[in-house]
Amino acid sequence: MIPLNEVSIYTLLRMAFVWQLLSFAVYLVGLLAIATFFFDNFKSVVLIVKSILEPYFQPQLPQTLVEKFGKWAVITGSTDGIGREYAKELAKQGINVVLISRTKEKLIAVTEEIENEFKVKTKWIVADFSKGREVYTHIERELSGIPVGILVNNVGKMYDYPDELSNIPEDTIWDLININVAAVTIMSRMLIPELKKQKRGAIVNISSGSELQPIPYMAVYAATKRYVRCFSQAIERELAEHNITVQCVTPLFLVTKMNQYSDTVMKGGFLIPDVKSFTRSAVFTLGKSAETTGYWTHGLQKWILMVCRQFRMGYQAGGETVSAPSEGPPAARHRVSCPPQESTSLPQSVPLPQNSHPAIMEKLDAIQNAVANVASQMTAVVNRLDSVERQLSLANQFQNSIERTQGTSRSNDSFPAAFQRSVTVSIVDMEIEELRPLIPMSTMEQVQAVEELL
């Protein structure tokens, strides 16, 4: 080893320089990562501020929406919620509107309201987008000759209530695809040639906060809204050279008819604005930002969600496992299904290492016995449920035989039917009362025994 007093000053300076250079590189990478994260989450704010300041430095640029995009706008799903308020906000700025929806009476009422309040031209088109491709020929014919400058793809459909995919009716799934996916695609394709011809225009696609992550029990809806975002980003690049703006609006919870399944959401609040306030803010961002949540509290919520998702991804990358929640939405939690009897059986023994500590082996044996007892109890539960099902089946057969024998309507056979129903109810009630204490008591005792052993 070289003595310290023999180390030259030049060598020490060189080592110090290399150390400082490495430290600077690490700090620089960290700052760039933080800056990229914040820009990615706040770029819409940056672009809005830029658009607000631009007229002071370039006053020759178009200022109003009419100057930027044209005098006509088409809004789908425009008789309720976001679509209706979009039509009113655009009309407020002097833009003529074409309203497309499936209910003629509502269309007439909204167009009259807009004409009387804002003194602009209106047109309405009846179209049910759940019908698929057959409606677009009619829409294209009605829009012929109108110099459309803004298209708002707002029409959408939500589940009646969250549920598992296998429980969603097939017709509902096709409606979700036809309305949430096909409508935004075909309407954009229909009007892009007109926008190119005018060398200006805007397409506004209304997505949803559901697209930010996969959502169990709302799988199809969330996936269709993710499609809207990806579709918007793609055609934005395609149409940029033609001076056509494409904006994707990603609202979170709003007080709208689509969220009537939740009483909490319909109450509104600081984080859940009313549709009018949201739409006024969202229209303000048109032409200023390609992606927006539309409302500042929604932007804050989205940023928090993104931070949590980044944290979770980093946590998983570090070797930890994040388990899925054990409970779904209320509609799913109340649906209880019992597994087949053979699926409840467990192995009678688990091989243990020969050199295990005796105390550990004793506890493991006790835990294994406790689990086997729980499995035995569940097997008994399944058998009792099978008994209930057989009783109901026999009761139904008894009812059918009475009706076939007498050849009369159910209303003329009130006494046998009432007697049969009372017997069935009594049997089922007895079975349920016997099953009620079986599951929680035995299971809780076994769980407590395991906890004591641990």
TrEMBL record:
Gene: HSDL1_1
Pfam family, one: adh_short
Subcellular location: Mitochondrion
Annotated region (Disordered), positions in chain: 319-351
Domain of life of the native organism: Eukaryota
Residue stretches spanning the membrane: 12-39
A cellular component term, taken from the record's GO annotations: mitochondrion
Protein name, per record: Hydroxysteroid dehydrogenase-like protein 1
tRNA-binding listed as a keyword: no
Keywords: Membrane, Mitochondrion, NADP, Transmembrane, Transmembrane helix
Assigned protein family: Belongs to the short-chain dehydrogenases/reductases (SDR) family. 17-beta-HSD 3 subfamily.
Compositional bias ranges of the Polar residues kind: 340-351
